[in-house]
Amino acid sequence: MLVRAQDVVAAFIARGVTAATAESLTAGLVAATLADVPGASAMLRGGVVSYASEVKAQLLEVSRELLAEAGSVDAEVARQMAQGARKACGADYGVSTTGVAGPDPLDGKPVGTVFVAVAGPERTEVRECHFSGSRAEIRGAARDAALETLFTALAFPETESEL
């Protein structure tokens, strides 16, 4: 399902809730895509581009031990990034992306491995995705997955799931 940024923004505004981003491999694409929608300022609180593990640890409070053991391409890192974005920006929901866009594998993970997480008031959902294509295509697919996960978390808040 391809979710448009307009639909995410409209859904958040209709519910009166806010979002924040924590992005590694997408480097701000999710926040920029949301911000391209007129009226997004009513729901987008801010975001952190955390390419470096040190930034993940300092600004998003991702466990330094976890980063040292698992590396940055990890489901729990994505979970902590989303929770950190929510806290750092004072948002109702936080969405994160971390993964490998290429050209080389990272942290023992093949190119195209992406983790997307959404932290909300009731739960945090993490998705593991595997994309193919160029670096730009993988980053675009990760952005789209983040928008979809964010929209789904808001549309179905009572459903507990971890993919």
TrEMBL record:
Source superkingdom? Bacteria
InterPro entries, alphabetized = CinA-like_C, CinA_C
**Lineage of the organism:** Bacteria, Bacillati, Actinomycetota, Actinomycetes, Micrococcales
Please identify the protein, giving its name as recorded: CinA family protein
NCBIfam families, per database record: PncC_domain
What positions does the domain CinA C-terminal occupy? 5-152
